[in-house]
Design goal:
This protein is mainly alpha-helical and 587 residues long. The protein is built from 28 helices and nine strands.
């Protein structure tokens, strides 16, 4: 994939949407505000487009958009941004809602502000007040005393009497949000003391759980109108599919699906090239709306809230990766055929084809683990493989199979022709923090297949030679897991001492002697020892094999990493890559 910058694309006005879709961030904001009819223009845009543009630019710079927004759009901002997960349930965040109301206040009239507030569900207004205020009935205090009327309330708090004289209130939210809440309460009383007092009564005595349940139901219904599917329907995206079956036709996307996250289709991926060939207004609109709906499905399936814009970008980037894989498989390298598929085939199927291609590699990795450790699940033990093969297997075993980034560095370092241990092990820190990314192109699948093939062959030969035993976690005197290259090097050093070819832990004296016997004049593993190792592995494999040569090269590479100095004595305390007796830090 190329540029991962994700921008919202308008769908309500196709021509305008395509013009704005070419702009990003501040340029897009300036293009909207420069129009003479900017307020009217803003109100024609989908709430999601405005919301993500505001998030992209920054709320302070984009405050004019909030002020120009319609009550329906403003309600959409609250729906998209102000619901948070708390102890497994969604709750409205009063602080977030008050921040949006503060933004709306800039450059707005009192009438506009009142319209935005009254456009919110009554339950949302009550939850905002409930979250920011403590409320005590004055009449109850006078009749029963403070302790009886307000059990648990602090009588020393800064209680204030409301204009109607019926309530004592204490503001519980400090800072700018308290100022906005004061303004909100003042404006409610200015609009009508009796309705305001009745509202405070509801806030005081209604159950928060019921208010939240009703408000969430209304919010979810509006999200469904925006094109967000039900969770169970969205989860079906990650079901395996028959990648050889005739693809189903593209269903008509829901009407009036507003814009959500869409990348500019101007990159050089196969998906981008195919998309660029969809030029007809009707076909392009159909494709855009189908992509929008698919993006919404991914968001729901991955349980990502629109307020988490970084997670949304990652999710839509993964969606594009799976689409690119699926489209490449279905169309080969024919972009004309690919563009036809985009216009005629269900994008859900294209997505599922891409995801199923990664699942096939996951199942292969699971079979490898099951063969080595019978009866165990794939998450109970990591295979004793070096990078990149070990990293590839571990990444494939994730709930959603991932591509190990270290494979890119290994390929650049000459893998699979050479072990590339050092480059492959350092790669994750040099690229992505997690060292993982979604599979994106067919070459990713091919590289993973190569790694899996080498992993299978090396595990088989390591077991045949006795280096690995099924379900054997005891390696010498250490019960920790060691990569195969460490086991091989330790066994090779034992062999150089005239002992059995096993990864038995070495003492410091044995290490010194083995190092002298195994090295040549340059400090590398000697040709004689390497030849013996190849012969021993070939015998275990019932004949010379490429895998035997590969394991010998891996052992030599590990020897060079373990003993970087060609001359002089070695210090066992700082020798890594060899299993040492009585020192669990080694290896």
């Amino acid at each position: 994939m190329t540029d991962r910058k994700i921008i919202p694309l308008a769908a309500a006005n196709e021509v305008l949407g395509r013009q704005l879709g070419k702009l990003v961030g501040r340029k897009r904001l300036d293009a909207i505000l420069s129009k003479e009819n900017a307020p009217a223009l803003v109100r024609t845009l989908p709430a999601e487009d405005l919301y993500f543009l505001i998030k992209d630019v920054g709320s302070e710079d984009a405050a004019p958009l909030v002020a120009m927004s319609s009550p329906e759009q403003f309600r959409g901002f609250i729906d998209l941004d102000c619901w948070v997960n708390h102890e497994g349930a969604k709750e409205l965040s009063p602080i977030k809602a008050l921040r949006w109301m503060t933004l709306a206040r800039e450059d707005s009239t009192l009438e506009d502000l009142a319209a935005k507030r009254t456009g919110l569900d009554l339950e949302v207004v009550e939850l905002i007040l409930r979250g920011g205020l403590s409320i005590v009935d004055r009449k109850a205090v006078e009749e029963d005393g403070w302790a009886a009327a307000a059990p648990g309330e602090d009588p020393q708090a800064a209680w204030e009497e409301t204009p109607c004289g019926s309530w004592f209130v204490c503001f519980e939210i400090p800072g700018p949000e308290e100022i906005e809440l004061r303004r909100m309460l003042h404006e409610l009383y200015a609009e009508g003391p009796f309705p305001a007092s009745r509202l405070l009564s509801a806030v005081r005595y209604e159950l928060t759980s019921e208010l939240n349940e009703h408000a969430l139901r209304f919010r979810n219904a509006r999200l469904a109108d925006m094109g967000f599917p039900e969770p169970e329907q969205a989860k079906a995206l990650y079901a395996k599919t028959n990648i050889s079956a005739t693809p189903p036709p593209q269903p008509t996307p829901p009407d009036s699906i507003p814009g959500f996250f869409l990348s500019e289709f101007v990159g050089d991926s196969f998906l981008d090239r195919c998309s660029a060939k969809v030029t007809g207004v009707r076909s392009r609109t159909f494709l855009d709306r189908s992509l929008m709906y698919l993006a919404n499905c991914v968001m729901v399936a991955d349980r990502i809230e629109p307020s988490d814009t970084e997670a949304a970008r990652d999710a839509v980037g993964a969606m594009r990766a799976y689409l690119n894989l699926g489209l490449s498989h279905l169309a080969g390298n024919d972009s004309d055929r690919g563009s036809t598929i985009l216009c005629s085939t269900a994008l859900k199927h294209v997505f599922q084809v891409g995801f199923t291609l990664t699942l096939q590699r996951k199942w292969r990795a699971e079979r490898l683990v099951a063969a080595l450790v019978p009866g165990s699940s794939s998450d109970e033990r990591s295979l004793p493989l070096d990078a990149p093969e070990g990293s590839v297997v571990d990444a494939l075993l994730k709930p959603k199979p991932m591509y190990a980034v270290c494979l890119d560095a290994a390929l650049a370092a000459g893998w699979p022709a050479s072990p590339a241990l050092d480059a492959a092990e350092r790669a994750p820190e040099a690229t992505l923090p997690s060292g993982l990314r979604p599979f994106a192109v067919p070459e990713d699948l091919e590289a993973a297949d190569t790694a899996l093939g080498r992993a299978e062959a090396t595990i088989d030969l390591a077991m045949a030679s006795g280096i690995l035993q099924i379900d054997d976690t005891e390696l010498g005197e250490n019960d920790e897991s060691h990569p195969l290259s460490v086991l091989l090097l330790t066994a090779t050093l034992n062999m150089a001492l005239g002992k059995a070819f096993t990864p038995s832990a070495l003492s410091e004296g044995e290490l010194q002697e083995a190092w002298r016997k195994a090295r040549d004049e340059t400090g590398a593993l000697s040709a004689n020892v390497t030849s013996k190792l190849v012969s021993l592995l070939a015998k275990a494999a019932d004949g010379p094999t490429e895998t035997a040569e590969t394991l010998a090269s891996m052992t030599a590479a590990r020897f060079e990493l373990a003993f970087p100095e060609a001359n002089g004595p070695i210090d066992a305390r700082y020798t890594t890559g060899v299993i040492m007796r009585g020192n669990s830090d080694q290896g």
